[in-house]
Design goal:
The complex is a heterodimer of chains A (about 110) and B (about 110).
Chain A: E1 9-13, E2 18-23, E3 31-38, E4 45-50, E5 55-56, E6 61-64, E7 70-75, E8 84-92, E9 106-111
Parallel strand pairs in A: 1-9
Antiparallel strand pairs in A: 2-7, 3-4, 3-8, 5-6, 6-7, 8-9
Chain B: E1 5-7, E2 10-13, E3 19-24, E4 31-38, E5 42-50, E6 53-56, E7 65-71, E8 74-79, E9 88-95, E10 104-105, E11 109-113
Parallel strand pairs in B: 2-11
Antiparallel strand pairs in B: 1-3, 3-8, 4-5, 4-9, 5-6, 7-8, 9-10, 9-11
Classes of the chains: A mainly beta (about 110), B mainly beta (about 110).
């Protein structure tokens, strides 16, 4: 069963920040939040993950609420190449518990 | 590193034929995963290996599907006999234990069973 809820689709203007929300109200203390994306006809691509602190890398920022029941993936300056399906996944990060459940994700369309 | 390599990229076969999909994981990765993606069911895990040993094959749909990992650099997913409902994109992914444990996916094999 999906542990996350995401809007099915979103649009974002090119050059603007894309903010993708994710609800994970049943997340447990040892579960991390992972984000992947899948560009059309390609394999999923890892973006970022976090436990409870906000995280930032070269691709995106991840903001996790204090109660950890929701998070937001931020693409600071969306480009046309960011058009993809974005998956929010919660999972335990320990050896032997490597199953990723992808759900249906959010289809982000970046508009010129 | 070349990333995860899958072959063939496209496969068209007739119902009843044997299909073999191949995967070369990233060197040094301990885990290898096989996923299947369809419009109806999305992306679902079929089986994964740790150090060449199958750990969880609960996602394998039925006995027609089998997967092997004879060594750390090669894995196969075999469907025998194939059926039209097996048509999907099959992805292989690998990850490294003890590190970030993020999964790196290959480009996929697009299978069409007529």
């Amino acid at each position: 069963d999906a542990k996350t809820t995401q809007p099915p689709s979103m649009d974002c203007a090119e050059g603007r920040a894309a903010n993708l929300p994710c609800n994970h109200s049943t997340i447990s203390g040892n579960e991390y939040v992972y984000w992947y994306r899948q560009i059309h006809s390609q394999g999923p691509q890892y973006i970022i993950h976090g436990l409870k602190n906000n995280e930032t890398n070269e691709m995106a920022s991840l903001i996790i609420t204090e109660d950890r029941k929701s998070s937001t993936l931020i693409l600071p300056h969306a480009t046309l190449r960011d058009t993809a399906v974005y998956y929010c996944i919660v999972r335990e990060r320990e050896t032997g518990a490597n199953n990723l459940f992808f759900g249906t994700g959010t289809r982000l369309t970046v508009i010129p | 590193d070349a990333g995860v390599i899958q072959s063939p990229r496209h496969e068209v076969t007739e119902m009843g034929q044997e299909v073999t999909l191949r995967c070369k994981p990233i060197s040094g990765h301990d885990y290898l995963f096989w996923y299947r993606q369809t419009m109806m069911r999305g992306l679902e895990l079929l089986i994964y290996f740790n150090n060449n040993v199958p750990i969880d094959d609960s996602g394998m749909p039925e006995d027609r599907f089998s997967a092997k990992m004879p060594n750390a650099s090669f894995s196969t997913l075999k469907i025998q006999p194939s059926e039209p409902r097996d048509s999907a994109v099959y992805f292989c992914a690998s990850s490294q234990a003890g590190g970030e444990e993020t999964q790196y996916f290959g480009p996929g094999t697009r299978l069409l069973v007529l």
